[in-house]
Structures are given as C-alpha cells and as structure tokens.
Amino acid sequence: MNQWAMGFLSATALILGVASASQAADTLKRVTDRGQLICGSSVGVAGFSIPDAKGRWNGFDTDICRALSAAIFNDAEKVKFVPLSSKDRLVALQSGEVDVLPRTTTWTLSRNTGQGVTFTAVNYYDGQGFMVPKKLGVSSAAKLDGASICVPQGTTSELNLADFFSRNGIKYEVIAFSTTEEALKAYEAGRCDVYTTDISGLSSERLKFHDPDAHVILPDVISKEPLGPWVRSDDDAWFNLVRFTLFALINAEELGVTQANVKELAETSTNPEIRRLLGKDGKFGEGLGVTNDWVVRIIAAVGNYGESFDRNLGGQSRIKLPRGPNALWTAGGLQYSPPFR
Predict the structure, then answer these.
(1) pLDDT digits (tens, 9 = 90+) for 175-186
(2) How far apart are CA 257 and CA 244, in angstroms?
(3) Terminus-to-terminus CA distance in the chain, angstroms?
(4) N or C: which end of the chain has fewer CB within 10 A?
C-alpha cells in the first residue's frame, strides 16, 4: 500500500473515530430529545421490578430509573420499562434497545470486559442460594447429592452451581430454562428437586407460589452477587450520571435527607455536606449535564436509599428482607457513597 493510500485511510479512520465518539457520547441528549428514558427491567421480580394491577412498574430497581427520570426531566414518570429475560438483557443494552439496565444483573469480570457494557455501582449485595420443598426435609445444600436443579439460562447461577458442587464432590443435574418463569413453574410442578437463584430472588419468587410456606430457602449462600445498574461502555458522561444517581440515594440516607424533608433542607440546612448534595453550594449537577437541584428532584420523587429499600424489599414490603450487607457503612454494612464535593 502506497504512502498516499495509507494517509487517506488513517485520516478516514480518524474522522470515523471522532464521529463515532461524538455519537456515542450522546445518550443524555438522545434521552432528552426523546422525552423519555428507556429502562430495562425484569419480566417480573417482586420487590425489584414488577408491574401492578394497573400495569405500573414498581420496585427497588425501577426506583433507579424513576430517580434518573426525575433528575433529567423533573418528572419521575417519563420512563418506559422494557421487560427483559436473563439471556436477552445484556444484548438489549448493547444494541441500544434500552438506555440503562438496573435489572438484578451481577457484576462479573467477563461481563465488564469485551461485551460493550459497563457496571456502574452496587445497589444490592446478594448471593446465590437454594429453595426446596419443605417436605423433602433438606436442611443444607450439602445434602443435595443427586438433586435435579431448575435454573434460568443466561445467568451466573449455572457456573456457580458447577463450582459449588465440584468443590464439595456432589453430583447434581441441571435442568435449564429460557426464562425465570419457566424455571419456577417447572420447580413448583415437581419437575426438579431444587430451584436456585440469588437469595433476594428466591425470597420474592416464593411469594408467587400457591402455598409459599411449603417451600424453604436453605441457609447456604454459595456466591457473591453484587447487583446494580449497567450502561453501555461508550459514554462516560452517561455512566457518571447513572452512577452518581445511585450514590445520591445512598448519600441522602446517610445525611438524613428524606422524601419528607428534602425541600425544607434545601432551603434551610447549614450543613455543608447537605448543601452540596442538594445543589445549594457548587455546580455538581451541571457537571453531570443536569440542573444543580437534581438530587432534590430525585429524593422528592423516590426517597433515599433506605426509604426505597424499606418500601420495596424491607419492613414495609411483603418480602421483608433484612438490610444485612446493604446497610450503610455507618451501620456495619457495605453501602458507601463517595463524598459529593
């Protein structure tokens, strides 16, 4: 190839690269121009993302999308929720079908490299467990030798099973299904001995059964499953907005900023941390591409992290999960926001 041709191709590649980067960095603009955020959700996991009788989506994960919508539009309802199965969720994000994916998806090395998607921050620390019929009398996973196990495809659960049973020298049979709903129905119908997924999922899915008390969740936790919102890897500005929207919820809880008092504190607080968080000092919102009162909008719409947790997963919900590692770091948990300064 001659020097002229090489120079031409290099220049063309540079132009295409600049154009691609410019297009890639426009997620917030595309959302704003569209007038709506498109959010990937589960096909229905109680407590995390599930439609009510009127078709309105609710849950701990959907609160992330409503918080983003509030930050961008000052309206928490400008969100379209797209239900996605486990095997389709990352593909839908990669292809641009959704803008953000806060849908019980574990942060792993392989997912975060080479797939065009990036994990933002942990909104729920989880771990994989097992659910069995109470009539089997099984008290621990160590007694599952020879068991058949229902599991949805496209999840980390399949590899975790292989690791756990290999470590413990236990034989088992995997019965995989395309969707969570299919796997659950098969388990309840007795087509397998065990159903496995994250502990939070087991707790919520058990409520769908005709007789929830006929099933028990074993005490074993066999994996680390940090869950949280995902975005495409081509837009750092969008990554930062999604990431710090979650951090805003966590930081608000730590500082005692609630849905009930956020507007009052925005006007009266002399605490420098609260003033920065709520946009009274500094221009942190503008740095993210939104207004400086973006956190006021968020907390007024969905409450702080603790309020969202309690409403969807904790004491005010049917699931009643303990905070555990999802307590704030000041209360012995792992939830921790970098400072807003």
Answers:
(1) 999 888 899 999
(2) 16
(3) 53
(4) N
Distance CA 239, CA 229 (A): 10
Q: What is the mean pLDDT of residues 77-106?
A: 95
196 band by pLDDT with thresholds 50, 70 and 90? very high
Residue 89 covered by a domain: yes
Report whether 80 contacts 98 (CB < 8 A): no
Segment 167-178 shows an average pLDDT of 94
| Same domain? 154 vs 114 | no
Place of tokens 């999308």: 65
Indicate yes or no: pTM above 0.85. yes
Inside any domain, residue 61: yes
One domain, residues 33 and 94 = yes
The answer to whether residue 18 is domain-embedded is no
Do residue 36 and residue 86 come from a single domain? yes
Q: Into how many domains does the chain fold?
A: 2
CA 272 vs. chain centroid, Å, equals 30
Single-letter amino acid code for the residue at 304: N
Closest of 336, 127, 341 to residue 246, by C-alpha: 336
Out of 200, 223, 246, pick the residue that ends a domain.
Answer: 223
- 163 domain-assigned: yes
For the chain, how are helix, strand and coil distributed in percent, rounded to 5?
45, 15, 35
Distance CA 63, CA 299 (A): 10
Distance CA 180, CA 32 (A): 33
Instruction: State mean pLDDT over 24-39.
Output: 91
**Tokens 């973006």 appear where?**
294
Continuous H helices in the chain: 3-24, 27-34, 60-73, 89-95, 109-112, 157-167, 180-188, 199-205, 236-255, 262-268, 272-277, 284-288, 294-302, 305-312
The DSSP 8-state label assigned to residue 331 in this structure reads G
Residues in the chain: 341
Task: Write out the two tokens for 240.
Answer: 């930062």
* CATH code of the domain containing 91: 3.40.190.10
